[in-house]
Each structure stands twice: as C-alpha cells, then as structure tokens.
Design brief:
It is built from 35 helices and no strands. It is an all-alpha fold.
C-alpha cells in the first residue's frame, strides 16, 4: 500500500514539477519555439483535467502564456480542442482556475478576429459573463479582460459580447472598489463602444457615462487612460452621444488632465475633447467658454510627436465651424503654436494635420488669413507641397491649406515669397489676390514695384485669354504703361539697342 502511495506521490510531484517548469519557461520569448517544437501543447492538454487543482491551474497558465506569444500557438490551442475544456471548467472549477482559464481565452482571442470567433464559437461568452458576477474581483477582472479582447476586433464580435449580457455587468464592475477591475472594465466598455453608434448606445443606456465621469480625477493614471478612452469612443459617433458625455459635467474638470504627467492620459483627454468639438458649433463653443481652446494650445506646446496630434486636430474642427470660433483659436495664440508644429515635427502625418488646421483657421475672412500669413507659414506650406519627399497626404493638405488661405489673404507682403517660388497652380491664386488688392491700395502698388513683384509678374507666361492673363492685365492696368514696359523681359536689351542705334545730333 505504501509503495502504491509513494508511486502516486512521485507521479503527482513529477506532473506538478513539469507544468511549473513549462509555465516558467513560457515567460521567456527565447524558449517559445523550443517548447512548441517539443509538442508541449499536447502534453499540457490532459493536465487541464488533472485531479490536483494546482496542476490544472498551472497547466492553464502555461497554455495561456504560450497562446499569448503568437497566433500560431493560439491556433494550436484551438486545433488541440482545448477551448471547450476551458469553457466547461469556467463554470465548474475554483476561482484560481477560472482566472487561468479566462487568461487562455483572452490570449487566444487577442490575435485576430478569426481566433476571437473560435473562442465565441465554443460557447465562451456565456461562461465569461457568468464570471463577471463572481464574488472574487480577480475572476471578474480576468473575464472582463477576455470579453474586451473579443469585442475590440469588429462590430460583429462586439455585438456578440453585448448579446451575451456583458454590458450592465461591466458597468457594475467599474463601480467596484478595486482599481485594477475598474481599469479593465472601462477598457472593455471602450472596446465595445468604439465599433458603432448602436453599440456605444448600449453602454450609455446601461449608465456607463455617469460612472466613468465620476472617475476623471482619480489619482490612478492607468484608470484615467481607460476612462477617457471609453468616453471618447462614446462621444465620437453622434451629436446625441457627445451631448450626453458633456451633460455629465466633465468640463472644466477634464481640462486639468491636459497637464497630467502621464502622456497617455493627456492624449486621451485631447482625443475626447476633439471628438466632442467636431460635431457642432454649439459643442465647440461650450469648450471655448470653459477655456478649452487655450488649454489645448498649452497642451500642444508642452507635448511632442503623436501626443500632439488630437490637440492639433481639435483646433481644426473648432476653427472649421465658424468665423468666431476660428478667431477664438487665433486670439488664444493657436496659430503660432501650429506654425511650430509645422516646422519642427519630423512626422509627415503631424505636419499634414497642422497644415489642415491652419487652412481651416485662415479660410474665413481676410483678417483670419492675415493672422495665419503673418506667422510666416505660407512659404513653409509651399515648401512641403513641392517637396518630393513629402507624403502624398501632406502634399494634398499643404496645397489645400495654401489655397484656403490665399483665397482670403489680402496681406500682400506675405505673398511676395510665393510670387517668386510657387508653381503655376498656386501662382494663379497668389496673382489673383494681388489683382484684387492693388487697384484699391496705393501703398501696396508702390511696394509691389520695389519688392520686385511687378518685374516677376511680367515674366509669367500666361495663355492668352486665361484667368491668369486676366489677373496680370488687371494688375498691369494699375501702373503707367512705361513702368510696365520697363519691367518687361527684354526691355533693357531694347533700351541698350536704342542707345547703340541712337545718332546724336551734331
């Protein structure tokens, strides 16, 4: 009898040591391929049914770590018919095993919509939703994490999570005292809400906004990241949803978070403000009234790289709505900050966003255009448009911004550099603005001559009868004929020829 007992004990010890070693080895990426080649998946599967609970849990943990590493290993878990066993165990086993089983489901689901669908197809959603009602916060957290990873892929998977009844329970989870559980539940609500207005509405209907809004000043940075992400994913879809977020009285409190030491918190706050501002002039005005535009401009000045991007876009959306809102951006010194971004940011997509926003500010009236032009951004926009190294999107945005500003710009000194360097499609807009201003402005007419503008104008080869030729004629008509002739190409040669041919009177 004792021999049998010792054999069983030794066998149990060996199994336990095996799964612990595999679980430990699976934490290091350099071991993964060796473990895969050794066929550990098929060796771990029977241990999920082991009579010893700790061996079951460790086997599940090892499988989760392997599946988490890449989609090939996750695929192997699916093909090994391991998922149904895990789903069954979620309902039957203790809390330690439930956490480990939920971890495996999350690790498989995260890689692709197809693998997430495999998790759904084996009946995991109902079991995971039941886990959200467990007493143990660790089990709830593991289940919420898995549900979020399934929902984040697409609207269909997200809808399946909603249909399983997850949303009201996730809203309850964000009210629990454990910060880690709050974070993961908020993240899952964000993943669900981002997919469509209808899915966002389910989270709103379950009361998510009010509970998320209460946490915007929570000291935990990782929680705030998820809170702001969830609110912005809800606000982005429609005016109604954005208004519901605003009605939770998040302003002006959210503006203090634009100075948060955590870069992701700052970026997510700026994203939330952008998603609200883009919908209507009224929502943008509300943000202006609470000091939001000035706060975002400060935030752009304090940030670098991609963290700046939502702030830059937010100013563009605000300015696009109306003359007054664009002027609010100008008055808060937004143009100078955008000019810095346009010049110093190395990434083309950030320059493109800055160009787009400057175009939205400058397109309203001559006063708006002048405010942009005096920041000396027109030559920079032209340079970015003409640079063959610029991305196609940057070239398009720079060109559009130039045209938007030029169509309103009557500040001719800012146009002088463009007259010298611009290609014909931009030059037409530049000359068009001169043709509007010069007939009515004596000082500008004089400056146009002394700056070399009139000389440059005579060098432009325009098609007879073209719009460009009409602009040139209109400008030339502002000057005496002999002045125009004097600055025309070849005039000095003709003059010299006359000198040579001149016969003095004896």
């Amino acid at each position: 009898m004792s021999d049998r007992h010792s054999v069983r004990t030794a066998y149990q010890r060996a199994r336990s040591q095996f799964v612990q070693t595999i679980a430990e080895l699976a934490t290091r990426p350099q071991n993964i391929e060796t473990l895969q080649n050794a066929g550990v998946m098929s060796l771990l599967r029977p241990l999920l049914l082991d009579v010893v609970p700790t061996i079951q849990q460790t086997a599940a943990l090892a499988l989760g770590r392997l599946a988490n590493y890449n989609d090939d290993l996750a695929e192997a878990v699916v093909k090994g018919d391991i998922l149904p066993q895990l789903v069954y165990s979620l309902a039957e086993q203790n809390r330690f095993y439930k956490k480990a089983a939920a971890f495996v489901l999350r690790a498989v689901a995260k890689h692709s919509p197809q693998l997430a669908q495999a998790v759904v197809d084996c009946g995991a959603l109902d079991a995971l939703v039941v886990c959200l009602e467990e007493f143990d916060p660790g089990v709830k957290e593991a289940a919420a994490w898995a549900l979020g990873y399934i929902a984040r892929h697409n609207a269909e998977l997200s809808q399946a999570v909603v249909d399983a009844g997850a949303v009201p329970l996730l809203v309850l989870c964000i009210q629990e005292p454990e910060v880690a559980l709050k974070r993961i539940a908020a993240s899952a609500l964000s993943d669900i809400s981002k997919q469509s207005p209808e899915l966002a509405q389910t989270a709103v209907d379950a009361g998510a906004i009010a509970h998320l809004a209460q946490m915007i000043l929570n000291p935990d940075a990782k929680l705030k990241r998820q809170v702001f992400s969830a609110l912005s994913q809800m606000a982005k879809h429609s005016v109604d949803l954005a208004e519901m977020v605003v009605e939770a009285e998040i302003f002006p409190a959210v503006l203090t978070c634009l100075k948060d030491p955590d870069e992701y918190v700052k970026k997510n706050v700026a994203t939330l403000i952008r998603e609200i501002a883009k919908h209507t002039p009224e929502l943008s005005q509300l943000i202006v009234n609470t000091g939001g535009v000035a706060a975002v401009i400060d935030y752009i000045g304090d940030s670098r790289g991609n963290v700046r991007l939502p702030g830059i876009m937010m100013l563009g959306y605000v300015a696009a709505h109306s003359e007054n809102l664009a002027m609010a951006v100008i008055v808060s010194k937004g143009v100078a900050q955008l000019a810095i971004c346009l010049t110093e940011e190395p990434e083309d997509h950030i320059k493109a966003a800055s160009a787009w926003t400057l175009g939205q500010i400058g397109r309203h009236t001559p006063e708006h255009a002048r405010s942009v032009a005096v920041a000396n951004v027109l030559p920079k926009l032209l340079e970015l448009y003409m640079d063959s190294e610029s991305s196609e999107d940057l070239q398009i945005k720079a060109k559009k911004a130039l045209k938007n500003i030029l169509q309103k710009c009557t500040y001719l000194q800012a146009l002088d550099p463009l007259l010298q360097d611009a290609p014909s499609n931009i030059l037409k807009h530049v000359v068009g603005q001169y043709s509007k201003v010069l007939p009515h402005d004596t000082k500008s007419r004089r400056l146009f001559v002394t700056s070399g503008g009139l000389k440059k104008l005579q060098e432009i080869k325009a098609e007879p009868g073209s719009v460009m030729q009409e602009y040139i004629n209109a400008i030339n008509n502002c000057y005496p004929e002999e002045i125009v002739r004097y600055y025309s190409p070849g005039y000095s040669d003709a003059l010299l020829e006359r000198v040579e041919n001149y016969q003095p009177i004896p």
